[in-house]
Amino acid sequence: MPDPGPVVPRRRIAEELRRLRGEANRTLEEVAEALLISTSKLSRLENAQGRPQLRDIRDLVRFYRIEDTQVASRLERWTKASQSQGWWTDYSGTISDELGAHVAYETEASVARVYTIPAIPVLLQTADYARAYYLSTEPSRAADVEQLVELRMKRQEALDQRGELPPLKLVAVTHESSIRQLVGSPQIMRAQLDHLIECSTRPNIELRVFPFSSQPLFTLTCMYAYFEFSEEIDRDVVHIETHAGIRHIERPKAVERYREYHDSLYRDSLSPEETRALIRAVKNEHFV
């Protein structure tokens, strides 16, 4: 899996290096030639691809004449932070590069705003539900299913604790079909719906169901996650999940539109209290 380390420090370095080069009015070729490195290497640094090396960052600091400044200190600190391996690399033989990148953003974001159809949001799934879902939708991956389920459970730890970072805040909207769709067995669904009710009362989790009674909206049939970051330098990103894989979006205008799409789904969904009431009703009516 390429670029397995933390995503946010690399993005911060890239943002700062692009800004410095712009202020110096230099081209990629000019800077690369002055530092005796390839243009492609400098381009990768400015696009958060690959792990930045401290030697290269110090050379750039000297080139831009910002030694002993706060910017230089930040660049060095971010470079050191980018060297660590993400915990998800333990699953690199099982998951795609796209999913690895998705987990990296999820691990470091301050807020995840998700919309799912027709499955329960991954961060709120029980192990039995996740296992049954994989076996039903991807039977060819039966040999990997326990590792995939383990990965999903590991991802949920971000909702509880993340070292120096506060727990991830989750704002989840899920289509009503997800709580009615039978996955595995009625017993698995009852336990899953009970788990949703319990999780939804936690202070950093807000769960809303988009009901059948609401009018269709533009992104109604598209599952995606909007990752929000607390630092101003960290641009928000969107990941759209399809059968063909995960599409990464970070162009500001496109990201802004997806925030509006999620806000619309949020507004037209049931309140958290109404959501819990509907989940209880569905459980007692369909999964006895």
From TrEMBL:
GO terms for molecular function: DNA binding. It holds the Pfam family DUF5753. It comes from the Bacteria. InterPro entries: Cro/C1-type_HTH, DUF5753, Lambda_DNA-bd_dom_sf. SMART domains: HTH_XRE. SUPFAM superfamilies: lambda repressor-like DNA-binding domains. This is Helix-turn-helix domain-containing protein. It comes from Prauserella marina.
